Task: inverse folding
DNA sequence: CCAAAAATGAGGTACGCACCTCATAAAACG
DNA sequence: CGTTTTATGAGGTGCGTACCTCATTTTTGG
C-alpha cells in the first residue's frame, strides 16, 4: 500500500481530519483518550508525516543562528566558511543561517548575545563557546523559550543543549598519540607538546588522551610538560628553543592547538626541519600547506563541511521535532596526511 | 524578496502560467522566441523550482536500483547494509531503492540484468562492477533510455556514466604507501604485498600508487612482487610462508584486498603476530576486529554510510536534473587506526 | 436537569507545482 | 483570402499538509 496520509489516520482512528490535525500538531482541545486513539492509528498504519508537504503548507522559513567567537584564528574562519556554504545549499530547504560573533573569551558578552536571541524569532541556535556558568544560564534561558540549542565543536554537557556536533577531544588526542608512537617507532625518545593554553577544555582533553596512549603503548617515549604559547609565535620559538636545549632525545612534536606556521619557521631557523615527527590538529589552509610542504606529518581533524551540514540538519530536525539519523550525523575523527588530503576545500 | 514562483515568472515574462509550465517541463507547442523569453525571466528572477512541491504534485516515487555482485565478500555485504539503511532514511523523500545482484565476475549476466532494467520504470541505477565491453554497451543502452547510471566503488570511465561515487584507488594506494613508510620507519627492509587477484583494476591502481610513494619517499624499502591468493586462505598462507622463507628483511605487509582473517591466522601460527606493520583496505566487521586486536595497524577506506547516502542523493539529483553539491558528495580517503574507529557503525 | 464548557466535525483556503481541457488568438499555408 | 496549424491563455484539479472558522455534539459542574 502507498504511504498513509492524515486522511487514512482519521478513518483508522474513527475521528475527523481536524482532530487528527490537532493531535499531530499538539494543538489543545482533545481528550486524552482521543489523543491516544490517534496515536495508535499512527503507529498501526506506520504513518510518517510528509515533511515536504508539511513545510510547503507551513510556509515556514527557519531562522537559524550560529554564534562563533570573534577573531579566534583560522580554524573558526574555516568553520565559518563551511557554515556559509552549507547555508547556501540549504536555502532551498527553507533554512536561513545568520552568523553572529562575540568577543572571544568574553562569556558575558556571549551571554548577552544569546539573551538577545532568545527574544527574537529564532528557530534554533548553534553555539561554539567554552563552558562557563554564565553561558549555562544563557542556554537554559533560550531553551525555556523553546529555542533548540546545539553545541558546536566543543561540548556543553552541563547545559541541557539538544545536541553536540563535533568530535570527542579525548579520542582525538588518543588518535594523535597512537599515530605519534607509530611514526616515532621503537626505541626511547622524548615528545614535545605545544599548546596555546592549557586552560581550554579541548586542549586538556586532547593531552589526556594523548598521554594515555603514550603511557600504555609506548612507555619508552616520554611526553614532556606542555609548552604554552598564548597564541604568540615569538613565545613558541623561545619556549621550543629552550626546551630543545635541555632535552636531547626529542623525536616528536605534538601541536595541541594552533601555531603551525610559527613552529615550521622556528624549526627551519634551527635547521631541524624534518627531524621530528610532527602531529597537529584541525585541517585549515595553514595545516594543509604544512602537510604538503612536509612540515607536519599528520593532522587529526574533523570534516568542517560535514560538521556544517550536520549542524543545519540537526537544527532543522530539532525545530521540526523530527528524529535524527545518528549514523549520518556522527562526525568521524579523521587522520589527514599528505596523500589523502582532499583537493582544494 | 521571497523566492520567486512560477507565477512570478509568468508575470515577468509576460506570458501565462500555462506557457511557463510548458517551457519548464519541456512540453511541446511553444515558439522558440517565447521559450527564450521565459528562460530569461527565470534567469532574471533567479527562479529555482521547488522540488519538494514539484514532487508532491507529480506524485512521483523514484524507483532507484543498485546492482551489486553476488557473493563478493564482506565488503559488498557491508556496502549493501549501508545502502539499505540509507534507503530507509530516504523513504521519506519518495525514493525507493531496490538492490539487485549478479553473479560476480559474470559480466554477461550483469549486462542481461541491466537490459531488463532498461525496460522497466526505473529512475536511476547505481552499478558496482568491473569495466568490460559488454558492460559498457549495457550502460549505454540504459542511458539511451534516459535512465541515469552512476558507477559505484569502482569507476567506469569508458562508459558515459553520469557520476562516480567512490574514492580514487590510486590515491588510496598512495596513502597506504605513505603510511607504510612512516610506520616501518627508517632503515632498509622489504614489504610484502598480497592481493586476491591482480586482474582487477582497483588492485592494480592501488599497487601503482603504493609503489610510487615507496619509490619516491622510501627508496630503502623494497616492495616484493604481489602474492595472489585468488580468495583462498590456504593459498595465502602457503604463499606467505614461502615468501617469508626467502625474504629475510620483511618489515611490512600490504593487503590490497581481502584476506585479513587468513593473514592474521597465518601470522599467529608462524609466531609472527605484531612483527610487521600491516596495512589494509576497506573497513568491514573483519578489519574492524583486526584493528582492535592489533592484527592490522591501519586501514585505508571510504565511509560506506556516506557513500550510500551520496549514491541516493546523486541518483535523485540526476533524475531531477538538479545540480550536485560537489563538496558534500566528495568521498574522502579515510585512514582508520585503533583509536579513531567509530563506535559500532 | 440545565447551562456552560469542552471536544469534535465539517468544510474551506493556501502552499508551489504538475497536468489537464477547452477556447481563442496568432501564424502559416495554399 | 479563407482555412488549417500552431501558440497561447484561462481556468480547473490534485498532491499532503497546516491552519482557520463555525456549527454541533458531548461532557462537566452546579
Result:
Amino acid at each position: 500500500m502507498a504511504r498513509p496520509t492524515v486522511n487514512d489516520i482519521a478513518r483508522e482512528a474513527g475521528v475527523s481530519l481536524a482532530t487528527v490535525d490537532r493531535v499531530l500538531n499538539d494543538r489543545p482541545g482533545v481528550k486524552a483518550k482521543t489523543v491516544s486513539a490517534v496515536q495508535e492509528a499512527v503507529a498501526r498504519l506506520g504513518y510518517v508525516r510528509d515533511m515536504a508537504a508539511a513545510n510547503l503548507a507551513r510556509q515556514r522559513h527557519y531562522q537559524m543562528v550560529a554564534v562563533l567567537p570573534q577573531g579566534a584564528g583560522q580554524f573558526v574562519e574555516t568553520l565559518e566558511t563551511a557554515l556559509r556554504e552549507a547555508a547556501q545549499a540549504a536555502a532551498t530547504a527553507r533554512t536561513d543561517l545568520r552568523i553572529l560573533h562575540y568577543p572571544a573569551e568574553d562569556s558575558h558578552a556571549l551571554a548577552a548575545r544569546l539573551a538577545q536571541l532568545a527574544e527574537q524569532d529564532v528557530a534554533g541556535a548553534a553555539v561554539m563557546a567554552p563552558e562557563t556558568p554564565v553561558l549555562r544560564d544563557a542556554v537554559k534561558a533560550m531553551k525555556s523559550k523553546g529555542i533548540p540549542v546545539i553545541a558546536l565543536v566543543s561540548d556543553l554537557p552541563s547545559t541541557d543543549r539538544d545536541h553536540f556536533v563535533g568530535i570527542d577531544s579525548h579520542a582525538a588526542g588518543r588518535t594523535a598519540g597512537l599515530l605519534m608512537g607509530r611514526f616515532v617507532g621503537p626505541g626511547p625518545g622524548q615528545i614535545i607538546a605545544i599548546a596555546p593554553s592549557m586552560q581550554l577544555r579541548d586542549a586538556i582533553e586532547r593531552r589526556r588522551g594523548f598521554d594515555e596512549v603514550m603511557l600504555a603503548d609506548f612507555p619508552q617515549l616520554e611526553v614532556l610538560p606542555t609548552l604554552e604559547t598564548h597564541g604568540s609565535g615569538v613565545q613558541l620559538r623561545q619556549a621550543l628553543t629552550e626546551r630543545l636545549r635541555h632535552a636531547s632525545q626529542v623525536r616528536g612534536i605534538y601541536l595541541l592547538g594552533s601555531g603551525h606556521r610559527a613552529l615550521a619557521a622556528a624549526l627551519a631557523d634551527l635547521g631541524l626541519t624534518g627531524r621530528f615527527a610532527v602531529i597537529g590538529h584541525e585541517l585549515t589552509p595553514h595545516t594543509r600547506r604544512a602537510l604538503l610542504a612536509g612540515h607536519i606529518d599528520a593532522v587529526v581533524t574533523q570534516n568542517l563541511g560535514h560538521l556544517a551540514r550536520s549542524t543545519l540538519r540537526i537544527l532543522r530536525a530539532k525545530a521540526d521535532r523530527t528524529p535524527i539519523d545518528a549514523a549520518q550525523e556522527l562526525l568521524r575523527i579523521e587522520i589527514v596526511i599528505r596523500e589523502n588530503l582532499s583537493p582544494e576545500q
Notes: The radius of gyration of chain A is 25 Å. Residues 15-19, 22, 29-31, 34, 53, 55-59 of chain A lie near DNA strand C (CB under 10 Å from a C1').
